[in-house]
Model the fold of this input.
Amino acid sequence: MSLELRDIHKHFGPVRANDGISITVETGTLHGLLGENGAGKSTLMKVLSGFHSADSGEIILDGKTIKLASPVDAIAAGIGMLHQDPLVFLPFSVIDNFVLGSPGERRLDRAAATRELNELSERYGFNLDPETPARLLTVGERQQLEILRLLWLGARVLILDEPTTGISADQRAKLFVTLKALAKEGMSVIFVSHKLEEVADLCERVTVMTRGKVVGEAELPVPPEQLVEMMFGQAIEIRDRDQVSLGSSHLALDSIRTATGLLSEEPISLEVQAGEVIGIAGMEGSGQDTFLRICCGMRAPKEGRVAVGGQDMTGKHYRDYLAADVKYLPAGRLEEGLIEGLTITEHFVLAGEDRSFFVDWGAARKRAVEQVEHYTIKGTEASTAESLSGGNQQRVLLAMLPAELTVLLMEHPTRGLDIESADWVWEQLLARREQGTSILFASADLDELLRYSDRILVFFSGRVIGELDASATNVDEIGLLIGGRRSGTEGVAS
Amino acid sequence: MSRVNSVLLPAAVVVASVVGLLLLAGTNPWDPLKIIVEGSIGWPPLEEGAARKVGDTFMVWVPIALASAGLIVTFNAGMWNIGIEGQIIMGAIASAWIAREISVSRPILVFLVILAGAVGGLLWGLLVGVLRTAGGVNEIFGGLGLDFVALSLTTYLIIGPWARSGVASTSGTDPFPEDSYLPALGAIKLSPLAVGIALLALVGVWLLFKGTLYGLKLKAVGRNRPSSFLLGIPTNRYLLGAFMICGALAGVAGTSQALGFHQRLIPAISGNYGFLAILVVLLARFRPFLVIPISFFFAMIAVGSSSLQLRLDVNPSLGGVLQGVLVLSAMFGLGWAGYRALKEMSASEAKAGSG
Amino acid sequence: MFSKRLIKLLGVLLAFALVAAACGDDDTGETTATTTTAGGGGDDTTTTVDDGDGGGVMVDDFKLGLVLVGPKNDRGYSQAHFEGAEYVIDQLGLTEDDLIVLEFANTTDTPGLSLPGTAQDMVDLGADLIIFNSDDMRDGAFEAAELIPEVPMIWASGDSAWAEGKDYQANLTNLKNTWGKMTFGKMIGGCAAGLTTQTGELAYLGPLTNDETRRLVNSAYLGARYCWENFRGEDPADLAFNVTYIGFWFNIPGVTLDPTQVVNDFIDGGADVTLSGIDNNVALIRSGQRAEAGENLWGVPYDFVGACDEAPDICLGVPYFNWGPAYLAAAQSVIDGNFTADWKWSEPDWSDINNPDTSVVGYARGPGLSAENAAFLDTFIAGLADGSIELFQGPLNWQDGTQWLGDGEVATDFQVWYSEQCVEGITGVCSVNVFG
Done:
């Protein structure tokens, strides 16, 4: 099924999210849609899947112009959308989720549906048990379920919005195989991503978007530099690591241990010096979060001592750590960082040094305008936190950091950010490091860990399974440790 | 569909049905509104002889406005202070206690009575807050429970220790000594002091959230407690602060009820104005100055609805039904406004960039 | 089809929806204004202002204001007043429009209520006489009378106009008190209960505790004891009479005791006849429900002539108020220009206590009363009528054992009116609060 989008406009107020977009997707191709955050990719896909209606423009399917008033219309026309977070009802079983979206007039025949699910599942090499509760599925398996469901509903155009976020490398490989197979069968696949290498791996054609416009198209493969240039206008060079001389001890953990659960088995000791960057690796939920919370005083360890800048902080409150210039930035930027509904100016006032009872809003706004400019935040001083994109939220959070910082603890500093923003974040962090701030960051990005850390702590199953010198290790070694294998041994460490 | 149509069409339908129905019934649609106005502030408004009605209406307005001012604070702190009724009652009880027990010169007594109301409400509010922060009791359940305790306590005092001599009735206590009444204008009940305090409270709350760091932090705590905590705001202390401010204002509302309007203690001393204030605040969308007209309108209905009963021979519960219809209509309007706001928001979201 | 009243109600609601909607939009606001002018049929209320020069009013111009503590159809206290007021209207040849009624005049149902304001409203509507029907309205009635001294008012059940009374308000020269000697009605009801009980245990559902209610509890007990002793030949010591006060004239959830629950407790405790002293008919209804389930129960309701209708089979009769004649007399005095603010505590018309035109207190027998007991009751009433039966006569002790009336001493009106305690033989707390 061939698909053509012709001159799509979609405006939100003064913002032109889609400004005259035309794309043609041929039958049976894997078509990449590449662009940084905020380029208008999601909006375009929402138009195509019936969530938004375009202000103007045409959607032409196999030569016929179609009107999409809702997602139901879209799937009826054969356009299926796989969302970033698969729309799966967790308490329901796989088969219930499978039949849930079926059109109203179809009689609900579970036995038949189960049979069809099994057939489809087998055809694409998936392993889904119809009776398993969906909450036991991994994100990757939920995607598989969703893909099967869309196929079952008759999708002939499949849209995938950032499908690789949150799934394992294994599952990603499997997904790509499936998508290639589908394309061979005549399915048109639109793969939306901001990850250059994925698009280069998978797709046959790519359209690059920036600021609501199509800025380039290419038959793949092309040299990556060319795509980067389309996206950012210039090739970004990978900087070498600066050598920073380490200073006095900024954070010292002496045999800390929690009472139960994660980090309760083996005591952890660690000394971090001024200007040192410690990367924290591990599968999500292996104890990194608990560890960071102990470092900033939000959790008290059952045993052991914590010192900041040589001063014993054991048992002290989070706010005492804060006063000792220890700052923690968790992963959830809108959950544990920014405050929905408050403006950027208000955030700066809250984080500011001025503690006087009455707020001088004139001055505060002026400062905020300066900060917005200085940190190149896309938004105004009156923008609310939730109206910002992830990258800009991260910029605000970094702008809110106090001037003096002894220890900075961060989770996933660049998760979900485009390359430009991610580089910018690290520029800021490295500048802090030059000033002597010790940085501990948890990340799932091995490149990031290797590139910026001095040392890497690897967590596995609630304890530290390895401590590596970042300059003397490699991706393979970290990968093994994350999976629970100490190098040189065969079995999983227990 | 143009905006004009979406507003005018439903309005036209309503107009048509109203006119049709009222013509059928042989009355005109202006009457009920006029009667409410007439029964609460006089018609034409503030005509001679309406002083008493105006006074009553203002004295009903005072507790609603005070409670609303307090609720703006707790709502901004993210708390549903259902315990507001109990806080009004405890303020009334504390004021009543001073009024009954203390005899000093009039100005001092009036000051003490108001102070006692504030303290009584504050402590009762604090209790809700402590249950919430230290005991993990949801403020809605804790507040409801404490409302009930406060009501039981007034009933006990009225029928027990503070009963009229030889009488055990939940009807109410004897009127308090006149020296303790909030100073009123001659024979009518209107107390400029009470009205002044209510206005001051609303201005204060406006200023709190408009111009102070404390207010901004309260708002931050209300919108996102983990983020606020990470910013170094002592969230529990701020929650307690919100409950104390609200409790104190509600307590003064109780003072106004006990020593301004009723001039004695009755079980229904709160007049349910606390619950009413929740509606007022939601309708006013937490804006202190919008509270003034909205609560005044509710006060007009409260005072004027008996006139409606007298003049239209309609069921006395009409006042309540009317209130409900108004609230629903307003909510409908708000929903519409909210829908538009949402559209604007998604627009600005797109502007800031959603990929 | 819709009744006219319902249509009116809907119209009012829609009008308000319209007004609320209009607030949001200027254009609509203008539409409203034009609509009203176009649709307005000039239904303006004409207000007659009473010049209050004491010269009386024309009968045709007379309007009666009535402030009821409860609903006008409570099958109890307020309904009795409402029907009394309707009697006045009928007798004077006036129409419904000449009767201005406010229901639910209590702080629980109507928090923003102010009786002086209501009185002013009624005067604005042309009321020439205003009746406050409840003991609970004392302070409000005083305020109203003081503020509008030129308009005659009645506070039923009070003693503010009794020069010899404890609560005499000499300055309120326009506030009259009207009350009937319900003591007799309660004695008759008590007698019926004493004649009928099989368990020898009677219960009285009291409202709040004050002089008036103790007076009536005492009357009921003395009536029951007399008939138990004299017609059945039983020992007064074997007659149990328990009173529980709920705390107010009617039940307010969360504030008063729940009367239904109290009646259950009475019955579970062995009482088979429950006398009611509260404003509504909960006691008889509850007893009726339990009687239907097979229990041997009876009830004596209160206040309203038709109260037995809600559970006729178990109803022994109802002592009721017949306010019509007393209110008619007051209305006539206003019309004639000779209204006096006095205290009236009227006896029943002993020639026929159920004469609707003469007797302020009556007793309407219920089907639950046996023929044999009915005959005894006739004898008892005749005794009360001719004075041969005098129940407020010593020796009579208070509940706490102190003497109230010495041997042969007959209580004065003052003594009966201000009944400080329940009399000996009654169990239950009558003098202090219900919480003990």
Observations:
- Chain A has 16 helices and 20 strands.
